[in-house]
């Protein structure tokens, strides 16, 4: 096994076709050009439903701020996993599997785990995969299978990246989850950029670059059909450049990048159709011993030895200019490639400007990256970074500019409150627009490009001025929030969890939201996040309002059965006492990677049904099922046991197939088939305890008709064959 980890470091410490060299964990499978690569990734065929499930150690953080707690940590983990699961052009699905206990995740199915430990000062977290040493050949070429992935977070949440409900904590978890899925650092200000240059937000936790990188590892059919590519070669004075970063940049949008192979070739895939400026730049030197430039894990040659990068060189826009206005835009069409975008650059002794961070200020709050209100005539951005400052002033010959014409830089000077920083003064054009803008810092013989270094906005950050708890007509708890800066894109959060919006009057600054299920006596920090990336912490900081949950009666969960036969899908009924189960905010877990929850339905705040299956290879064991509903974290110790399946016993899978359309799902009156084992036409089939005639059957499949007028929704399907029976939950859709 090989363990590969990358980390986030705080600024202060800060016959096989060749494959693109994105920022993955790469193995070169040959020694000469054209180079073939094998990336470390999960084997989709080894994952239930192509889904990798992440489990969190129940030995959570040991220190919290006053209003923080473990349930909020779990909420952010769930939110981070949902961000990676949202990538439609990736075939990999990502799920949250709840808690595991005992200090180590059990099970042989590939999975991920989140653990908490004492991290070195300045380290926000680190994560990465553990892989087998052998190559596997899949439909997209060779790869190295990931068997386990680990995310390690700080057990002291009074330190950076801050309390679990903060945006910085979420973005750290998203970043480390990306490492665990097989992604390395990027220089595009995306989720996989380090904390120094990252420009993502809770409203947009991953960027186009992250989507492209994940999709390239696990491509769906949509990926190549909906995006295009740019490819070429980079040389340094005629010699191939290895691990040069080539970036495709949209002037008013995001950036997507790739790294070069040892022969200098590169291919940037996953580009939405449009016009791009393309530039090449060197990676900054490492901050951590044993890693390559930009703190990437160096690729390995066929003998398992690291392949070094080529070193520093000048940054150029295509074809050979430091001025983006002199660059030749490259057009990209969906399903097509633009080839031959080559660079020949000159070597430099070192990377002079690197690791640039931009800031803006809202009252007493420091915000990064910089957000500037383009509705004003002018604005300023405060900047820090290596190579920008000499003797408390701008480095000799330093200038700055904004790509795309939205703003003009009118000056670069020392920031007087703190001369170790620079102040970049901006004058806005008549119609500057809004969204990310890219900055360029120029010296007499080189440039540095900062993608999304500036965010133009058209309104002030949101804020909450009052909180009024109440009840709706059904007796459910709601809160009326008043404030400013609310919009149709606003997300209202209790600690880490978004609340359901019942009504919103943005003009009046009034929103009514449902209260997520909470733990007894919990105090949840309230915040608002807008689609432009701004949030209420910009102006409220530690003065954010807090919602206090009532001290409730005892809460508990109970499970309707005690055994899980290995290799057999079965329904598990979950009953709660004083619980608040809600659709989309309830997770059922069993603490083992060999037990999969295929689907969960919330029927009421105190009742849920789930289709659960234990792997055929799952060991016989006693497990403690756990339910996370909102901020309620509940379990029933040793309530269930995995047992061997009985030889010859019938079983039915939960997936219905419409015989007429050949598609999953069904409607009342439709003829459907269901897969299983040890089935026969003489068996009895019931749907919600209503007998359904069997039309045809074999040992592995039954065909039947759903009764006309049958109520849509989750229904219990039972099959009995003599003295044996199997039960699953299926969805009947109109």
Protein model, in words:
The protein is mainly beta and 734 residues long. It has five domains: 2-217, Collagenase (Catalytic Domain), CATH 3.40.390; 354-457, Immunoglobulins (Immunoglobulin-like, Sandwich); 463-545, Immunoglobulin-like; 556-630, Sandwich (Immunoglobulin-like); 651-732, Immunoglobulin-like, CATH 2.60.40. It has five helices and 57 strands. The strands form 13 sheets. Strands 1, 2, 3, 4, 5, 6, 7, 8, 9 and 10 form a ten-stranded mixed β-sheet that branches.
CATH topology of the largest domain: Collagenase (Catalytic Domain)
The percentage helix is under 10%
Number of strands: 57
CATH architecture of the largest domain: 3-Layer(aba) Sandwich
* CATH-defined superfamily of the largest domain: Collagenase (Catalytic Domain)
Number of helices: 5
CATH class of the largest domain: Alpha Beta
Number of domains: 5
Nutshell version of this structure?
With 734 residues, this protein is mainly beta. The protein is built from five helices and 57 strands.
Give the topology.
Layout: E1 2-3, E2 6-9, E3 26-28, E4 37-41, E5 51-57, H1 70-85, E6 93-100, E7 111-117, E8 123-131, E9 136-138, E10 141-154, H2 167-181, H3 208-217, H4 221-226, E11 228-236, E12 239-240, E13 245-249, E14 255-259, E15 265-271, E16 274-281, E17 316-317, E18 330-332, E19 337-338, E20 343-345, E21 354-362, E22 365-367, E23 370-373, E24 378-386, E25 389-390, E26 393-394, E27 399-402, E28 407-414, E29 422-428, E30 435-443, E31 446-457, E32 463-471, E33 477-484, E34 491-494, E35 497-498, E36 501-505, E37 510-514, E38 523-529, H5 537-540, E39 546-548, E40 556-559, E41 563-565, E42 569-577, E43 586-589, E44 595-604, E45 607-614, E46 621-623, E47 626-629, E48 632-635, E49 640-643, E50 651-658, E51 671-677, E52 684-687, E53 690-691, E54 694-698, E55 701-705, E56 713-721, E57 724-732
């Amino acid at each position: 096994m090989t363990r590969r980890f990358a980390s986030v470091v705080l600024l202060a410490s800060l016959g096989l076709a060749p494959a693109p060299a994105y920022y993955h964990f790469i193995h070169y499978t040959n020694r000469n050009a054209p180079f073939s690569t094998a990336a470390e990734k999960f084997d989709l065929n080894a994952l239930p439903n192509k889904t990798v499930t992440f489990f969190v150690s129940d030995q959570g953080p040991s220190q919290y701020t006053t209003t923080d707690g473990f349930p909020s940590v779990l909420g952010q983990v769930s939110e981070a996993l949902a961000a990676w699961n949202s990538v439609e052009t990736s075939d990999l699905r990502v799920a949250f599997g709840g808690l595991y206990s005992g200090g180590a995740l059990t099970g042989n199915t590939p999975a991920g785990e989140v653990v908490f430990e004492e991290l070195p000062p300045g380290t926000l977290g680190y994560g990465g995969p553990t892989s087998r040493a052998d190559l596997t050949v899949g439909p997209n070429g060779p790869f190295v299978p990931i068997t386990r992935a680990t995310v390690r977070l700080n057990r002291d949440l009074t330190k950076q990246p801050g309390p679990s409900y903060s945006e910085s904590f979420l973005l750290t978890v998203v970043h480390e989850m990306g490492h665990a899925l097989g992604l390395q650092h990027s220089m595009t200000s995306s989720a996989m950029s380090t904390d120094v240059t990252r420009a993502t937000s809770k409203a947009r936790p991953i960027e186009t670059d992250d989507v492209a990188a994940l999709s390239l590892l696990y491509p769906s059919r949509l990926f190549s059909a909906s995006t295009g590519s740019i490819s070429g070669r980079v040389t340094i004075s005629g010699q191939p450049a290895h691990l040069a970063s080539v970036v495709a940049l949209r002037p008013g949008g995001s950036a997507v990048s790739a790294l070069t192979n040892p022969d200098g070739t590169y291919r940037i895939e996953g580009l939405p159709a449009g016009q791009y400026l393309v530039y090449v730049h060197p990676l900054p030197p490492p901050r951590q011993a044993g890693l390559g430039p930009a703190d990437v894990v160096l690729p390995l040659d066929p003998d398992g030895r690291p392949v070094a990068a080529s070193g520093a060189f000048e940054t150029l826009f295509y074809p050979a200019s430091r001025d983006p206005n002199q660059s030749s835009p490259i057009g990209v069409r969906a399903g097509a490639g633009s080839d031959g975008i080559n660079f020949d650059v000159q070597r430099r002794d070192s990377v002079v400007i690197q690791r640039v961070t931009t800031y803006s200020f809202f009252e007493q709050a420091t915000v990064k990256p910089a957000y500037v209100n383009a509705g004003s005539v002018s604005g300023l951005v405060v900047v820090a970074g290596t190579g920008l400052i000499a003797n408390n002033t701008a480095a000799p010959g330093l200038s700055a500019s904004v790509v795309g014409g939205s703003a003009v830089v009118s000056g670069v000077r020392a920031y007087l409150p703190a001369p170790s920083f620079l102040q970049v003064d901006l004058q806005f054009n008549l119609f500057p627009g809004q969204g990310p803008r890219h900055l360029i810092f120029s010296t007499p013989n080189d440039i540095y490009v900062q993608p999304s270094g500036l965010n133009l906005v058209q309104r002030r950050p949101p804020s909450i001025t009052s909180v009024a708890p109440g009840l709706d007509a059904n007796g459910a708890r709601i809160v009326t929030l008043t404030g400013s800066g609310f919009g149709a894109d606003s997300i209202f959060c209790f600690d880490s969890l978004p609340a359901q919006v019942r009504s919103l009057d943005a003009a009046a600054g009034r929103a009514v939201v449902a209260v997520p299920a909470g733990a007894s006596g919990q105090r949840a920090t309230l915040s608002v996040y807008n689609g432009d990336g701004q949030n209420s912490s910009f102006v409220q900081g530690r003065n954010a309002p807090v919602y206090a949950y009532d001290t409730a009666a005892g809460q508990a969960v109970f499970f309707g059965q005690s055994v899980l036969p290995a290799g057999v899908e079965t329904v598990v009924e979950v009953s709660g006492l004083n619980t608040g189960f809600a659709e989309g905010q309830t997770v059922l877990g069993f603490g083992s990677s060999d037990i999969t929850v295929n689907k969960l339905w919330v029927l009421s705040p105190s009742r849920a049904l789930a289709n659960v299956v234990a792997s055929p290879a799952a060991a016989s064991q006693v497990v403690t099922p756990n339910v996370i509903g909102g901020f309620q974290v509940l379990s029933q110790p040793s309530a269930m046991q995995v047992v061997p399946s009985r030889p010859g016993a019938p079983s039915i899978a939960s997936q219905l197939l419409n015989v007429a359309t050949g598609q999953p799902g069904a409607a009342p009156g439709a003829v459907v088939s269901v897969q299983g084992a040890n089935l026969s036409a003489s068996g009895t089939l019931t749907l919600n305890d209503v007998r359904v005639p069997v039309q045809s059957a074999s040992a592995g499949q039954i065909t039947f008709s759903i009764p006309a007028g049958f109520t849509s929704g989750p229904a219990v399907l039972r099959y009995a064959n003599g003295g044996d029976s199997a039960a699953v939950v299926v969805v009947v859709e109109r």
